[in-house]
Write a structure and sequence with these properties.
By secondary structure, the chain is an alpha+beta fold. About 20% of the residues lie in helices and about 45% in strands. The chain is elongated.
């Protein structure tokens, strides 16, 4: 089995477990504690090194979350790229903020015109579960 297939399977499994954990957590949480943690992909573009994302986010005060993202080419050959922003690079204060994330391709890079599926999501500081995800399909 190729390494990229293993990575995709791990990411899919982690996303499924995270979605189930988040669903249970939010169902039990009071309404006030779930009012932030928003995530949106504003723009997907092609930089020299690979896909580049403009992301808007908002998170609760005192929460240490990191943002992880990945892109997968959906037309033609198989290409993927991934990236992350540490909690130290994010400001969690209920306000909506913007940040740029550069994704690093695995193997050969992407080219102009590639159609990609991009997903970003929050991970907790220990990397044990994810919350709030956003997915878009874009042409580079």
């Amino acid at each position: 089995m190729k390494a990229s297939r293993i990575v995709r399977r791990r990411l899919a499994g982690a996303a499924t477990v995270a979605a189930l954990a988040v669903t249970g957590t939010l169902a039990a949480a009071p309404t006030a504690s779930a009012k932030a943690n928003l995530l949106a992909i504003d723009k997907v573009s092609l930089a020299k090194s690979g896909p580049e994302l403009n992301i808007k986010y908002s998170c609760d005060t005192g929460v240490n979350l990191q943002v992880t993202g990945y892109a997968t080419k959906i037309t033609g050959g198989k290409k993927s790229a991934a990236g992350a922003l540490d909690a130290a690079k994010l400001t969690c204060d209920f306000g909506t903020r913007a940040v740029q994330m550069k994704l690093t391709p695995a193997g050969k890079g992407f080219v102009k015109g590639d159609k990609v599926k991009v997903t970003v999501f929050y991970w907790d500081e220990n990397g044990s579960f994810s919350t709030q995800s956003e997915e878009v399909i874009a042409t580079l």
